[in-house]
Write a structure and sequence with these properties.
With 661 residues, this protein is of the alpha+beta class. The protein contains twelve helices and 35 strands. The N terminus is likely disordered.
Length: 661
């Protein structure tokens, strides 16, 4: 198989590359990973780097999950909280574009075309000689007591390992292993939350009144397609509904674009609700067009009626293979039909049709499937019930677990779950978008089954989290982070001969830190002193504006000068150093093309004042060294950011002082 331009040998059901050879009835490795998602790849890579063997069994034909399946505009929250192999992946993406070698200090690129992500994963799999068994579906498991001994598949093979990772979006191996799980939304009362369960809110909502009935005003005529007849329950009520799925499309306006196909069985009645919304005055947008480079997009759902197939995903998590295949086809037909409708239906304004038809599928992406992404965006499926369940309280920072194996930082985000009728008009229900104050730790206990259920399984994707907490955790970088941590724990469990639940968490965390994982926020280097823009050691001149618009900042936000008050606006960071000596000074900012390229920074130290000039259009979200200097103990030293004659916005975020041996 050729994946993203790099040749990768991938084992298929009848032929393959062995560890051992695919023809064997039983294939063994120290770690058996089920699911070639981004998480599955990272788990296998980490196990290989730790000197053990690993293989990946993938039920479908796609490698890389959503990361190679159209989600190129990465949902990251605080990007500086991405460490370890996940950070390396995004640095490798940058290196692919730049044509340079990847290094530990290479910048991360979190926005990319699908084929570039595929090429990076292909490199990682090839470099680590990891066999991937495609189109190989789990049928059952074998066990000895509370341990898995094999993963049986539909081609008659058994994959046997000392440890297992379920890296699927659905949690199929977890379920087959008899591990407890849930599907749906908990009531707020279950975990003492405030935004779980039913949520009738204002985001991605109909902003104009739209009649829900086949014959407007006549309830007896029935409801339009996709609208539930059930009365909406009070906010906070639990149910078995899950958020909507869609496909993340890679679109382009290029001349060689593939026009949107008309799906078989297309019925314009499926989009009557959208037509009425447009006739009521809605003018779009109908899908997002976030640029990922190369003239292409990562196009996602937006607004009240878009690419999300609301209400069609509820049965998917526990469905049979045949049922899932049918549901994937239904989602594809719905979304393709939507685009055809927008581009062609004569009842729509000409401007809507022309604007939609100006887009098409990128001809050089997903070539095996006609430009259409092969991976359905399964935003949520099963979620494990373990000895620790991540909840809204973790996301908000009200509790901070001590057994951290990685950080999450994205907004608590649920897409809509159903369409309902409220006071005679249609409404969407289930969308929640509530921010978190900063990166927060994910518990090791949330990625291993409860005590006694399965001693050698790790679940870094369908981990133990409430519906609303999962909405924050469920991002591709976090899945990669947790998968690396799971594989490291698997190695330690094998070495010590202990169950996953009894791994020495202190030893695990030490190894993770050595491998670049970030486990606490703010991240800490031994002996370092960090002065954040919100610390007591900051003084300001002029007017500074707080912001979180660009990711990569330290702490809760950063500040900028508004590109005004040049020479008047200045901000000084003053540390309280515990001892005299040589300290290396690092400055942090968030980068953007509108930033100044010539920011003067004065470092006041024991030998005087040294002025450095930094370019804030690049190197965002990193600690950039300003040099090493002698400082007296206490607060005599400082770092001053000035704005004189700067050619753009000046950012003040944080300064770090690291003792130099």
């Amino acid at each position: 198989m050729r994946l993203g331009g790099a040749t990768l040998l991938v084992a298929a059901p009848a032929t393959g590359l062995g560890l051992p050879a695919l023809a064997a009835a039983t294939v063994t490795a120290d770690l058996v990973v089920y699911g070639a998602t981004s998480a599955g790849i990272m788990a296998a890579v980490q196990m290989r780097r730790l000197g053990r063997t690993a293989l990946i069994v993938e039920p479908g034909g796609h490698v890389g999950g959503l990361t190679t399946g159209g989600l190129g505009y990465t949902d990251s929250g605080t990007s500086a909280a991405i460490g370890g192999l996940a950070g390396e992946f995004y640095r490798r993406v940058h290196a692919k574009y730049a044509g340079t070698a990847v290094t530990p200090t290479s910048p991360m690129r979190l926005v990319f075309e699908p084929h570039v992500a595929a090429a990076v994963f292909a490199d990682l799999l090839a470099e680590h000689a990891i066999p991937v068994y495609l189109d190989t579906r789990l049928t059952s498991v074998t066990r000895a007591g509370d341990r898995l001994t094999g993963l049986a598949t539909d081609n008659g093979q058994l994959f046997a390992g000392g440890m297992y990772v379920d890296a699927t979006y659905e949690g199929d191996l977890m379920a087959a292993a008899g591990v407890s799980y849930t599907v749906g939304r908990e009531a707020n009362s279950v975990y003492g939350e405030t935004i779980n369960g039913v949520q009738l809110r204002g985001a991605h909502q109909f902003t104009l009144p739209v009649d829900p009935y086949v014959v407007p005003g006549n309830a007896a005529s029935g409801l339009l397609p996709g609208i539930s007849a059930a009365p909406v329950a009070p906010n906070g009520t639990g149910d078995d509904r899950i958020q909507a799925y869609n496909f993340r499309m890679c679109l382009t306006r290029a001349a060689d674009r593939i026009p949107f196909p008309k799906p078989a069985g297309y019925d314009p009645a499926d989009y009557e609700l959208l037509l009425r919304y447009v006739q009521a005055g809605y003018t779009g947008p109908f899908f997002t067009t976030q640029s990922v480079g190369g003239g292409k997009t990562d196009s996602n759902n937006t607004g009240a009626f878009s690419t999300d197939f609301i209400g069609a995903s509820h049965g998917y998590p526990t469905a049979t293979w045949a049922q899932r295949d049918s549901m994937v086809a239904e989602h594809r037909a719905y979304q393709q039909g939507l685009l055809w409708f927008l581009a062609n239906d004569p009842r729509l304004p000409a401007s809507v049709r022309a604007d939609t038809a100006a887009w098409g599928l990128a001809a050089d992406e997903f070539t095996a499937t006609g430009g259409w992404p092969p991976q359905l965006y399964v935003r949520e499926a099963r979620r494990m019930l373990a000895d620790y369940v991540m909840t809204e309280r973790d996301c908000r920072g009200a509790v901070r677990v001590a057994d951290s194996v990685g950080l999450a930082s994205y907004t608590m985000d649920s897409h809509n779950c159903q369409r309902v009728v409220v006071n005679g008009v249609v409404k969407n229900e289930g969308d929640v978008q509530v921010g978190v104050p900063g990166p927060y730790p994910v518990s090791y206990r949330s990625i291993v089954p409860a005590q006694g259920q399965c001693a050698n399984l790790f679940v870094p994707v369908c981990l133990a989290a409430s519906h609303i907490a999962y909405g924050s955790i469920r991002m591709e970088p976090v899945f990669m982070i947790l998968a690396q941590s799971a594989a490291t724990a698997a190695k330690l469990a094998l070495d010590a001969g202990v169950p996953a639940q009894r791994v020495d968490v202190g030893a695990l965390q030490a190894r993770l830190r050595a491998d670049g994982q970030i486990l606490t926020w703010p991240p800490v280097t031994e002996g370092e002193i960090v002065v954040d823009n919100r610390s007591a050691g900051v003084t300001r001149g002029g007017a500074w504006v707080g912001s979180t618009a660009v990711g990569g900042y330290y702490g809760t936000d950063y500040e900028h000068d508004g590109n005004t008050g040049k020479g008047v606006n200045r901000l000084r960071f003053t540390p309280a150093l515990p001892a005299a000596g040589t300290w290396t000074v690092h400055l942090r900012w968030t980068a953007d093309p509108n930033r100044a390229s010539n920011v003067p920074v004065d470092v006041a130290h024991a030998g005087g004042v040294t002025t450095r000039t930094v370019d804030q259009r690049g190197s965002g979200g990193q600690w950039v060294s300003l040099g090493a200097y002698e400082f007296a103990a206490g607060s005599a030293g400082s770092v001053l950011i000035r704005t004189e004659a700067t050619d753009g916005y000046v950012v003040a975020d944080a300064v770090r002082f690291v003792p130099t041996a």
